[in-house]
Amino acid sequence: MPRTRYAPDRGLTARMVTTMFFIGLLYVVFVGVLLALLRGAWPLILLIAGGLFVAQFWFSDRIAAYSMGAREVTPAQAPELHGAVDRLCALADMPKPKVAIADSDVPNAFATGRNQRNAMVCATTGLLRRLEPEELEGVLAHELSHVAHRDVAVMTIASFLGVLAGIMTRVALWGGLTSRNSRDSNTAIAVLIIPLVSAVVYAISFLLTRLLSRYRELSADRAGALLTGRPSALAAALTKVTGQMARIPTRDLRRAEPFNAFYFAPALSGQSLSRLLSSHPTLERRIDQLARIAAQLGQAERG
After folding, report:
1. Closest by CA position to 119, among listed 90, 149, 92, 93
2. Which family does it belong to (predicted)?
3. Is 143 annotated in the active site?
4. For 30-86, how does the pLDDT look when each residue is reduced to its tens digit (9 = 90+)?
């Protein structure tokens, strides 16, 4: 990773490596099961698995940005947003990403990109309308941290592998059932076992990505606050965004909910869900961490 002035996070790096290792291992085992049960369809299985993985790695950031309605803007079209990103990139000593705006009243922001050279940072019109300049810089510093630490790329790939297991299940079953050996006992066993294995793969990958997602949000809060030196501004933005979510129509929130793992704050807080399934840590935990950072920075200044 190119050096930046963002505070490094070895805990995040270790979690990203561990998550990718276990999800990759899970995926390899899953493909191995498909190949063992449906030997006649192995060329199709390998072709589809390899093709989808390569396509996901190269195009996932564009797919995510398009799905969330991001539209790249020039400095003339969004001078204040570009100015904030310029200041933060200079402060962090990192390349400036593409800057985009999503036309949505849901107050949020997100970052995409598999590396710093093709990254994009996007804010919604609802966020730009509601936040003060210092609060907006706090949110953008948080999002740029995802780019600097590359955890946004890891999250995108890790999330996709669980979905890919489901796609591969349908492809494998179709290929096995339509092959010349479709009447043998292996195919009958496959019809029973593959959906079960696929469900297990999806469930484990889902839990692993949720664990990583919650930690990376805390890491981005910490790195963004340390970069700007204004954790109180980020805390104010978090409080304001979370409070404003309650005023957004539920229909709009549900439309944004599938992309919660990418957002600065979840579109739906998931109060009815267990913390194990949440994509973000609780607001209280994030605010407490920022309060501790503010206290540490205050002590450093007095010292």
Report:
1. 149
2. Belongs to the peptidase M48B family.
3. yes
4. 777 777 776 666 677 677 777 767 776 677 677 778 888 899 999 999 999 999 999
- What's the pLDDT band for 256 if we cut at 50, 70, 90? confident
State how far the Cα of 94 lies from the Cα of 146, in Å rounded to an integer. 12
The answer as to whether 253 is a domain residue is yes
Mark residue 229 as left, alpha or beta (left: phi above 0; alpha: psi -120 to 50; beta: remaining).
Answer: left
Which residue has tokens 């919660």?
A: 260
**301 token code pair:** 């200044």
Range of the domain at 133: 10-302
pTM of the model: 0.84
**Assigned domain for 290 exists:** yes
Q: Phi then psi for 95, rounded to 5 degrees?
A: -60, 145
Distances (CA, A) of 20 to 169, 203, 265: 21, 15, 24
Residues annotated within a binding site = 142, 146, 217
Evaluate whether residue 1 is within a structural domain.
Answer: no
CA distance 139 to 136: 5
Residue 254 lies in a domain: yes
Number of domains making up the chain: 1
Please, what is the Cα angle at 240 between 234 and 244, to 5 degrees? 145
- Binding site listing for Zn(2+): 142, 146, 217
Q: What is the pLDDT of residue 109?
A: 96
Q: Which residues contact 245 (CB under 8 A, 6 or more apart)?
A: 106, 107, 253, 265, 267, 268, 269
Residues 6+ apart with CB under 8 A from 146: 111, 152, 216, 220
